[in-house]
Design brief:
With 268 residues, this protein is α/β, with parallel strands linked by helices. The chain has helices spanning 33-42, 60-63, 66-73, 81-89, 153-161, 173-178, 183-190, 198-208, 228-241, and strands at residues 2-8, 15-19, 24-29, 52-54, 77-79, 102-104, 111-113, 116-122, 131-137, 140-145, 164-168, 215-219, 251-254, 263-266.
């Protein structure tokens, strides 16, 4: 049985676990190792069972502890060459990934990583480079798309392939417009290399999901410019306007920013 946990999703730190009975990987290590170890103990997960790490991009809230995690558990870290270079140059990261632990990915090319067939695809964001992942294992296609400036054809295709989907719903447009952020930061968030709004997320889902999609988790919500219930209701309203009923046609949930959101068992 495939298991999924979000250990944190937002600007305070992002980290996701995906595991089978005999293999496991982490996607992003943006939370402290002490916190991660505690969460794993709480859920009965041994970090020694994790055999691979995937990184989406080089912003600190996604890579804070990747070097230390890789070093302590002798784990390979998979990312594109540009993302690895970005990690090396990020002054927020004190321990870098050792050269012999850097595994290079090519955007658009599938690679077998243990039991997981992984395909990175480009996601627009103002990092050195940013990718989403399609991960195929045990007949399930798990897709994660975070820190999304705008919806591209690659993203539309990935959504259409998903059985289970983690996708950004970062901000409410009105809350951002009326909120305390300075103008330059509002422009950055709203740009095509910024973050995805609740409305844009809802439309992307409604226009590209298929009947195979079983569960959607909204991720990377802004603490200042969004609220979990607002994000869920906005996306649900858009889906309903397309005749898609959350709770009936698929499940829709919001991931917590700083806490785990339970363990989910995923099956085809």
């Amino acid at each position: 049985m495939l298991k999924f946990i979000s250990f944190g999703s937002g600007s305070s730190g992002n980290c996701y676990y995906l595991g089978t009975a005999t293999d496991a990987l982490m996607i992003d290590i943006g939370i402290g190792l002490r916190t991660l170890k505690k969460h794993c103990r709480d859920y009965g997960i041994s970090l020694s069972d994790v055999k691979h790490v995937l990184i989406t991009h080089d912003h600190a809230d996604h890579i804070k502890s990747v070097g230390s995690f890789s070093h302590d558990y002798t784990l390979p870290v998979y990312a594109t060459p540009k993302v690895h270079a970005g990690i090396d140059h990020n002054y927020c990261i004190t321990r870098k990934v050792a050269d012999d632990m850097k595994m290079m990915l090519t955007v658009g090319e599938e690679v077998q990583i243990g039991e997981f067939l992984v395909r990175p695809f480009m996601v627009p964001h103002d990092a050195s480079e940013n990718v989403g992942y399609e991960i195929h294992v045990e007949g399930v296609n798990f897709v994660i798309i975070t820190d999304v400036g705008c919806i591209t054809d690659d993203i539309k295709e990935a959504i259409s392939h998903a059985d289970y989907l983690v996708i950004e719903a970062n901000h409410d447009v009105e809350m951002l417009a009326n909120g305390p952020y300075p103008a330059y930061l509002k422009q950055r968030i709203q740009s095509e290399s910024g973050h995805l709004s609740n409305d844009s997320c809802g439309r992307a889902l409604a226009e590209n999901m298929t009947e195979r999609l079983k569960h959607v988790w909204l991720c990377h919500l802004s603490e200042e410019n969004n609220h979990p219930e607002l994000a869920r209701k906005t996306v649900e309203s858009i889906l309903r306007s397309y005749g898609i009923i959350p709770g009936k046609d698929m499940e829709l949930e919001v991931l917590r920013r700083t806490m785990p959101t339970g363990m989910y068992e995923l099956s085809i």
